[in-house]
Amino acid sequence: MKIRNQKDFWAGILFVVFGGEFAGIGSSYAYGTAERMGPGYFPTIVGVLLVAIGIGVALGALAASAELDKVKKFSWSTLLLILGPVVLFGVLLEPLGLVACLFLLVCIASHASHEFGWKAALGNAAVLIAISLTVFIYLLDLQFPLWPAVFNV
Questions:
Q1: Averaged over 93-109, what is the pLDDT?
Q2: Among 14, 58, 137, 149, which is least packed by CB within 10 angstroms?
Q3: Do residues 105 and 86 lie in contact, with contact meaning Cβ atoms separated by under 8 Å?
Q4: What is the residue extent of each domain of the chain?
């Protein structure tokens, strides 16, 4: 049996692994019933569904009709450009505030795209800041610092 679509095959394997982990951890909690769900009900059901989807995706990648596709070389720089800003957001939220942190997060993470452009990055940052302010600050009334600490005196 030949793996015709490596991307789908490995994505299916990841679904199976993570779904199995969810189901395994969820089954260690009280399961309950569909009417009175316990804390283990949801993660177990989601884990089983992920395993089933993963098996389907992986088997589909083995089919003769599957599109030929290979996994490209892993890019550590792309991974760092996506995870790094998330860590920076958590570290810099207090001193810089929500607006500046979101701006930095979007602009730095946008460099991970092969189609990076400043115009799109700035537009995305503006939209994300507006949505975040609306939802988290004005609608949910969460207490995040909005601006750098020097302005909150």
A1: 92
A2: 149
A3: yes
A4: 6-62, 76-151
